[in-house]
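Chapter review: from sequence to fold.
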Amino acid sequence: MLSACVSRPSAPEYEADDTTRQLSDQQALLIEQASQLLELAENSDTKAEQQSYRAQATSLFIKAGEIDSAKEQLDILMKQYSEWKSQPGVDAESTLASIKLLAAEIAVAERNPSMAREIMDDIKPVNQQQQAELNQLQ
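The token string follows.
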């Protein structure tokens, strides 16, 4: 679903200014937080907790501009969802909506509005938070 390639600009040949350094520091912090969430996901006792941590990490990767890492986590989330969706204690509808919201965020970050629109049209929010996230993406 999200197999589009991401082209990245080559490294600039000029020295970074304060804004660039701040952005890099912010990105590094987001990536560090995402990594900590992934560690929590790996050590989780429940599937719901694991998915929650992984989804939060995916969102942080998107905010940090680490789209490849976000896609990797999205693939894991989708695989886990397909394995867990019929098990007791899994809110399949809410989980699927959350995964699709992340996929739409990735499409937006990749500047792929047609893919983002296609994904958003397919999202069925289960709660107010998901509806708010969908409204924000639109």
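Two observations follow directly from the output. The CA atoms of residues 59 and 102 lie 7 Å apart. The longest helix spans residues 18-42.
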